[in-house]
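tool=predict chain=A
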Amino acid sequence: MAYLWNSVFETGHEIIDGQHRQLFGALNNITSAFWAGTGADEVQKTLSFLTDYTVMHFKTEEDLMIKYKYRGYSAHKKTHDDFKVTAGKLAKKLHDEGPNEDLIVNVTTKIGDWLISHIKVDDMEMAAYVITKEK
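tool=predict ok
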């Protein structure tokens, strides 16, 4: 399943939206690597990039929330921290078991669904606040 970026995911904040586009691309690259048959190492490398990029993206958002004293910072950061734990478990399972169709679908679906939900709710609210403060 491909996760396609479209305007429904745009928060209006250029940096955040650019990073979200990269996350969508990295997520899709996991399934592409698997279906291309490039091997477990390539799938793992792609997942590592996704998790590393996610950590960097979360830091960007958290730095903006701190800078502008976003009232929802603690709850938003907790969702980031919880997701990092979930993503870590998924990455470990993929590493331990190796890529197979069911696991790839499970990993990408859990990450993709979480990302979409998080953008549509938490990030939209946070970005709207940050944008008003940056003006």
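The mean pLDDT is 93. The CA atoms of residues 40 and 99 lie 6 Å apart.
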